[in-house]
Each structure stands twice: as C-alpha cells, then as structure tokens.
Amino acid sequence: MRPPPSSPPPSPSPSLWRDTDFRRLWAGQTASQLGEHTTLVVLPLFAVLTLDAGAGQLGALRAVGQAPILLLSLLAGAWVDRWRARTVMVLTDAARAVALGAAAVAGLLGLLGLPALFVVAFTVGTLSVLFDVAYQASLVRMVRRDQLVRGNSALEGSRSAAQIGGPALGGALVSLLSAPVAAAAGALSFAVSFVSLRRIRRPESVPERVAPAPERPEHAAPVRGRIREGLRFVAGNAWLRAVCLASAAFQLSFAATMTVYLLFLPRELHLTGATVGLALAATGPGALLGSVLAARLPGRLGHGVVLVSAAALGNGALLCVPALHGSSTVTILALLAVNFVFGTFSQLVNVTVMSVRQAVTPDGMQGRAAATITFVGMGFTPLGSLLGGLLAQEWGLRTGLLVTAAGMMLSPVLMAASPLARLGRVLPGPAGGAAPHKMT
Fold it and tell me: For labelling, which of 4, 194, 379, 428 has a CA lying 20 to 30 Å from the CA of 369?
C-alpha cells in the first residue's frame, strides 16, 4: 500500500502590517483610545480642581461613567454578534465626538457644572461599552486565528500609546488652558477614529447571519435568549469562569484605588494637574513594553505562568504609593516608576487574557463572550468607585489607598488557584461547550 500523502505544511502568516484594512483598524483604535484616556482624566480633574468636588462626589462621578458597563454590556454583546462590528465602532465614535464637542461648547459658555459632567460621563461611558465590545469582535472577523496574538499585541500597543498621550494631554490642557479645550481634544480624537474606521473596505461577515440553516437562530429570536447563550457558554468554560472571577476582583479594587488615587495625588502630595497627568501617563510606556512582551513571553514560559506572575508584580507595585510624601522630585520619580511597572505587567495580563478568551471562543460567540466577561468583571467598577470615595472620606486618603491597593492582590491569588495557572505555551482551540482538553 502506498502511504497516504502528507499534508502540506501550513503557509506562514502574512504580516499584518501589509494589510491596509488592519492598519486602518489599528489607526482608528489608537485615536479612539487617545480620546477615551484623555476624557477619563479630564472629567475627574475638572471636578476636583475646578468644581472642588469632594471624595463622595468624585466617587459618584466615576460610578456614573462606569454604570453603563453593568447596565449594557450583555446587550452590547448580543447586538454585536448580529451586526457588523465596524458599523458599531463608527457610530459610537461619531456619537462620542458629538457628546464631547457639546461639552466643550457648554464649558465655554460657563454651563459645564457638576450635573453636566454627570450627563457627559454617562453618555461617553455608554458609547465606550459598545465600542469596546465591537472592537474585540472585529479583530477575530478580520485576521486568521494564528494572527490573534500579534493582532492583539498591536491593538493593545496602540492603547498603550494612548495611555501615554491621553492622561498627559488631558492633565496639561486642564491645567494650562481649560476643561472645555481638553474636552474638545477628546472630541477631535474620536472624529479621527471615525474617519479611519470608515475607510476599511474588507467585507465583514456576521457569524449569526451566515450560519447554516439548521443552526441559524431565528431572525426574531429575543435578545434575552442570545444573552443567556453567552452566559451559559462562559459559565460552562473553566478558563473563562476563572477570567471572570479574577477580573471582578481586580476591577472592584482598581476602581476603588483610582478614586482615592485621583484625590491623593493633588490633595495629599500637592501635585498640579499637569503633574498628575504626567504620573498617570507613565503607565503608557510600561503598557507598550507589556504589549511587546505579550507577543513573546506566553509562548516561551506558558500562558498560566505569565498571567499569575505578571498580575502579582503589577498589582503589588501600587502598594508603594501610600508610602510617598510631599511633591519632591524623588516622589514624582517614584510615582513614574510605580506606574511604569504597573502599566507593563497589567498590559501583559490584559493581552494574554484577551488571547485566551478569543482562542477558546467560537466565532459566533465572540461578542457575547467578551460582553459577559466585561459585565461580570467591569460591572463591579461603579461599586468600587463609590467604595473608594467612602473609604477616603471615612478613613483618610492614605489609609484608604493602602486598603484598596491591597485588595488588588486578590486577583493573582484567584488566578493561581484556577485552571488559568495551568495553561501551557500553546492555547487550546474553540471549546464550544465541551470539557477542556489536556494541554501540552
């Protein structure tokens, strides 16, 4: 008998940077993230430095901006799995540009008070939920699965670049010019992203709409049914369950930490708005390094080892901040170092977790899986922001910051005790509803 012919070796993956549409996605994502990170700094700083908001008011403002994560994430996942992700991204970018542009005009007219900030924060938060779920699904529909890690590394690298420029730009504009000018800068970033994403020409298939007839959901199937499918899928997958638990612990504590942190820097350390922006921007270069490391370390050391160790190192770095005193050069350099370390290892965790989630999730479930994890993890952020404001008000800024930063260490502990810690150098394929298979 003649031996069966051997299968040809797989063709090497083409470079993503030769793909014009991917470059447009990357450019749009970069501009959109720049607008988002500028806005995340502008609104709290305007409330603290211009309107003299207290700890409770700042916590409430951040909670209002984060509430759409809890309210809309699951709906967003169901919608994205039935619509073109790029259409959702383009529309939300246009709407965020309009919202921040209106805020800039209101500020110039002297009408941008605390109630208006609450409205703007909620509106931008709602649109950001839709955009974030859509962009995570769009990459899977654009590139091959063996390109996901490199694609995520590039997109997360762009987010890192935005983390460098956004906080620094927002803090500087609020301090040197005004909050309306800073809001206008955010609106311009979203407008640039809108133009770039609109130029993508590659047709995008929507998995639920192109499924074979026996598997195709009814066109009029209730959204609740699709949401339940996403919840069941994530709950039935051991890796994704662990991601949800670790993410929930991290986001609750991180939201509380950031609320106290944004008060601690200007009021306890007496830093200016521009210096606060510079300190926050230090996470950007670190996150850029983390994106580069995420393309290499998991394949060499194993995804589980990278996830647990990076989470412990990054979250642990913030425990150093409550020990700082004064606004000396040493204090500022220490802040820059802490934020750089946090940015590096938190980004390494982010990219690795996203690659795990995308690898084990079928195409038709990408939007709902991302939204479910966002709902469970990020849904705790409004509570965390309120908790941070309460702790700062009752226990003081330094003690509150120490307690909330210590809470962030629960995330690596949960990952270490979960199946995530046992992930090897090669990720599994889509799991559907099956039990996880043994990994090499």
Answer: 194
